[in-house]
Every structure is written in C-alpha cells, then in structure tokens.
Amino acid sequence: MNPSESYELLLDQIRKTLLAMSEPQWILAMEEATPQEQTKEAKLKLKLQKAKLKLENAQLQNILNALIANQQGIIDSTAAMQQALANLQIIKTVLSAGAVLVATAVKIVGRLTKVKIGLV
Amino acid sequence: MKGNCFRLVLCLVALSCGCSSVRIAHFQEFAKSGKAYTQAASLLLDQAAISAIESDSRILIQTRDKLTVAERTETIIEHNKLLKERIVLLNDIRSHLRLMEQYFLALEQLAADDGDSGIGDACAALTESMGQISDRIRNAKVGSLPLPDFSKEAAKIFVKRYRRKALDAELAARASVITKELDLQQAVLKAIGKQMQFEFEMVLNQKELDTVVRPYRQEEALSSQWAAQRSAYLLMTQSLRDLDAAAGSAGQLQQSFIALVENRYTPADMEITLQEITSVSELLKKIYSQESQ
User: Based on the number of CB atoms within 10 Å of its own CB, is B71 exposed (0-12), middle (13-18) or buried (19 or more)?
Assistant: First the structure.
C-alpha cells in the first residue's frame, strides 16, 4: 500500500466514524448519556473532524503539486495551438489577398486584351 | 490513360479531404466535451468550498456547549485556519482548471473550419476572372466540376489539411501531458466527490433526526407536514448514489482523449462523455435545491 492509499483508507475510516456519530440513534443515545460521556464524545468528534480536515487538505495539496508539475506542458500545448492558428490565419490572408490581387490583374489584362483586339 | 490517372488523383484528394473532415470533427467534439467538463468541474469546486464550511460549522455547533471557553477559542481558530487552507487549495485547483479551459478553447478554435469558405471563394473568383482572358480556362473542367468550383474546393482542402496536420502534430507531441492531466483531474473529482458525499450524508442524518425521528418520538400530535417531510428525506437519499458521476466524468473524458490519440474516436464516445458531464451539473442542482428546502 502506497502513502496516498493509506491516507485515503484513514480518511474513509474517519468519515465512517463521524457519520456513525451523526446518525439519529447515536445522537439520541448520547442525549441519555452522562455529562462526562457527552463531553468525551464531543471532544472525540472534534478531534476526528480536525484530522479529517487536515487529511483532506493534504490529499488536495498532493494532487495540486502534481497538477502544477504538469502545468507547463498544458501551457506549451495551448501556445503551440494558438501559434498554429495564427499561422493558418496568415496563410488564409495571404492566399485570399493574393487571389484577389491576381484576379484584379487578370481582369485588367482581360480588358486590355479585348481593347487591343477591338483596335486591331 | 491520362484521364484515368487524373480521376484517380481526384478520388484520392476527395478521400483525403473526407478523412480530414471526420478527424477534425472528432477534435471539435472532444474540445466541446472538454469545455463542458471544465465548466462542470468549476461548479463542483465552488460547491466543495461551501459544503466543507457548512459541514464543519454543523459539527462546531453540535459540540460547542461541551467545551470550555479556552477550548472553544482554540477549536474555532484551528478550524478556521484549516478551512482557509482548503479555500486556497480549491482556488489554486480552479486556477489550474482555467488553463485547461484555455487549452480546450485553443483546440476548438484550431479545429473550427467554418470560416474556411472565404479562402475557397477567393480562389474561385480568381479562376472565374482568368476565364475572361481565355475560353479554355472558362470552359475547363476537372472531372465534372467547372474550374472555379474545383479551385474553391482545392483551397478548402489545403486549409483543412493544414488544420489536421497541426492538430495531429500537437496530439503526438503532448499526448502524455494531456493523459496525465486528465488522470489528475479524475483524482481531484474523486477526492472532492467523496468529501461532498460525506457532507451530504451529514446533512441527511441531521434532516432525518430533526424532521422525521424527533417529531415521531414526541408525545404531541404529528404536524400535517410530517409525512411530506419524511418522503422528501427518503427520496433525497437517492441522490447519494449519483455522486460517483463526478469522478466518472473526468474518467470518461480521459477515455475519449485516448480514443482520439489512437484514432478510434466515435460519436458514441462524445455522447457518453457529455452525458457524464451533464449528470454532474444536474446532480449539483438537485442536491442544493433539496438541501435548501
């Protein structure tokens, strides 16, 4: 069992215990208990809740560390795609502008040719 | 013979264009799933912070009268500190999720080929103009297509091939990064899903005690709402079974990505992924609307 699995197992046990301590049967039974037992139960509940918060934070911190370690790859990938998109826009602009320019030139040449033929 | 060769080339070009279109459509679908996923996960992170605070407050309220003033002071300060740490962690995870959102947005933009018709139209206009100076060009056909129509399609194919090449190159370069990222996303949602499941069960236990068990135990007559409250509580327990969907959505997105990398992505992958993601959003709405009742 690796450390993260044992963390998770411990966390599961704490959650199960806290849930059992929040069930109606448990609460009603504790209402019948002595003040000392009630205080003991309250302190145990708080101890478990604090341990749960700490373990959950540690679990999220571990995942966050791994996410941060992977972060640069995501940034690079996004930048590479944005660059490819920018290149594509340039290609499209150049092709469109080139086509329009050539089309205009061809039209002028076409008219001149017709004029020349007409003169001849 | 020359004509047959030309037709064969045309068929190959058409086939290649068809393959590129299908592949690009898969990228578009994956980007759409990814964007939906980041939105659902962001919602889940918001709710995770709220539900962690509410659940802790519930326990503090239950135990407060059993503690001395000194113990209360120590408890509230420690729990506040831990919850502040939690909020920072969840915010950092959300910031990272924004990077994923930008990744899916860039993917969607690169795969979006709906603006490619302009370049095709410009090329068609060029060949039409050329037809003005030459009857051969005006009457020329490629297969059964007039030259302007052919040049329009050829320009679109060129751009489409560029898109596909860029998308495939990016996929090949960083497939392992994205697979790992989706694996980690699954771990985030699993951890948060379990926390929220616990917190929701705590709410249910409290509701059962206050609205169902205590009124039933007391000597006084039951209120007219008791039966309805009991039904509402029992039906709420159903939502617990759906909480695993949170981790399921990230897992499904990862499977879709692997299918995309291995070029065996199907529309069914997309459908399952979107269903999982939608189920997370629906579940959150359901839980919080029931809790507020």
Answer: middle
- Evaluate the CA torsion angle B276, B203, A55, B47 in order and state its sign: positive
Contact B82, A57 (CB under 8 A): yes
Residue contact B122–A95, C-beta within 8 A: yes
- Scanning the structure block, which residue is given the tokens 């989706």? B182
Kindly list the residues from chain A whose CB atom is less than 8 angstroms away from the CB atom of residue B206: 22
d(CA B74, CA B220): 41
Tens digits of per-residue pLDDT, A27-38?
999 999 999 999
Q: What is the pLDDT of residues B46-103, one digit of tens each?
A: 888 998 999 999 999 999 999 999 999 999 999 999 999 999 999 999 999 999 999 9
**Cβ neighbours of B75 in A, within 8 Å:** 46
Look up the ipTM and state it. Answer: 0.81
Q: How far apart are CA B232 and CA B293, in angstroms?
A: 9
Contact B166 A60 (CB under 8 A): no
Rounded to whole angstroms, the Cα distance separating A22 from A16 reads 10
How far the first Cα of chain B sits from its last, in Å, is 79
